[in-house]
Amino acid sequence: MRKLITLSMLFMATALFAQEEETKKKVNVSGTVDAYYKTNITSTDQAIFGGANDEFQSFGTSFANETGFALGMANIIASYDGEKTGVVADVVFGPRGNDAITGNNINQLYAYWNVSDATTLTLGRFNTYLGYEVISPAANFNYSTSYLFSNGPFSHVGLKADFSLSDDFSLMLAVMNATDIDSNTTGDYALGAQLGYKGQFLNFYYDSGIKLGFEVDYTGGFDLSEDFFLGINGAYADNDGNGFYGAALYPQLATSDDFSIGLRGEYFAELGDNGLFAGSEDDSVFAVTLTGSYTVENLIIKPELRLDSNSEEVYVDSDLQATKSLAAFTLAAIYSF
Q: Which of 155, 100, 110, 160 is nearest to 131 (CA)?
């Protein structure tokens, strides 16, 4: 009898251990850590606005706005994938995450259900489907971000359905809270849609004017050769006469397995008086960003030169005189795991 009990206990322990190992295989943990050094070429590196509005002279875009040595963020993503269902918990810590997320450290938190081979339902908080760039620095070629990305949505809370219509066509439909709002206290909702064809995406977003209003966005790109890629982004947003429009090109050349060089050329203009810039109505900016990307194992080193030229005198030069342009150099390090 003792031998039988011992064998039974051994069998149960083995089964539990096998189940635990199987669970471990399904759980995946990944993430990034990034930091940078930045210096203004045409302006002082010191904070130039004193008192309560003390801030660094920088471009009018999100993230990487401090000068000197500065931190990006730590991004930790845990996911569990079942046969038909799964969950993703994505948390961020640091200035970059704080700029992108309001109220907590949750970048994404959602569950999904693969209803069929062609249909997936997702419920929770997920990063936006609009635009060429994303919050994670490891997924962008340029370290600094564009005006189109900075003024569009970052994340959504809601329900979306992804449909694979064929090998070439895809469709996404969504009902959500207004962009970048976690708790819906007004009873207003936003609608979203995306039509994809061979890596080209036409995106739509609409709310009743409580946040963004209406935005249509095209995101895509083409492999012009084995080593040369051209990314494209264009968007138009209108909220009762206020909004923005613009376009950006992203030519990128891989010179070796370890090094690539890329350029972002962007034209961006505001509609009405959004306060996107510190000048008058209908301000515009042309920005050119040249970025190198060198990879050593899981570490990406990105030296970057950027020049923004505005239609109004919204910057200051090294003598603290108003000027229309600002240039800066940034050296970033991004580690992925």
A: 155
